[in-house]
Amino acid sequence: MDIIKVGICGTVESSDITVIIEPNPNKGIEIELDSSVEIQFGEQIREVITSTLLELNIENARVVANDKGALDCVIKARVQAAAYRAAGSVDYKW
């Protein structure tokens, strides 16, 4: 799946995450993470974001994530929704 525009999903509520995905002109996956639990879980959050993108066959994307303590399942769902929006796709493979 190719990222062609900006896709956004999520809120800034407690236990949620806002995910913004946009095309990455530098190629590869770049993640900018701001998290209230980054010291404890930053590596895991980045892993969930990266693995979710790779499951969707996305190899080039810039991700900005503002986490407020979201569980892995919430992170994955937000990344999926933002990715489909950023790809302009309605061919959902949940």
Automatic annotation (TrEMBL):
Keywords assigned by UniProt?
Cytoplasm, Lyase, Phosphoprotein
Primary localization class, coarse: cytoplasm
Which molecular function terms from Gene Ontology are attached? lyase activity
List modified residues, type O-(phosphoribosyl dephospho-coenzyme A)serine. Answer: 14
This protein's superkingdom?
Bacteria
Task: Keyword check for Lyase, yes or no.
Answer: yes
Indicate yes or no for the key word Phosphoprotein.
Answer: yes
Q: Where in the cell is it found?
A: Cytoplasm
InterPro entries xref list = CitD, Mal_deCO2ase/Cit_lyase_ACP
Pfam families for the chain: ACP
Q: Cellular component GO terms, alphabetically?
A: cytoplasm
Indicate the family of this protein: Belongs to the CitD family.
Q: How does it assemble?
A: Oligomer with a subunit composition of (alpha,beta,gamma)6.
Note the NCBIfam families from the entry: citD, PRK13253.1
Q: What does this protein do?
A: Covalent carrier of the coenzyme of citrate lyase.
> Can you name this protein?
Citrate lyase acyl carrier protein
Native source organism of the sequence? Clostridium magnum DSM 2767
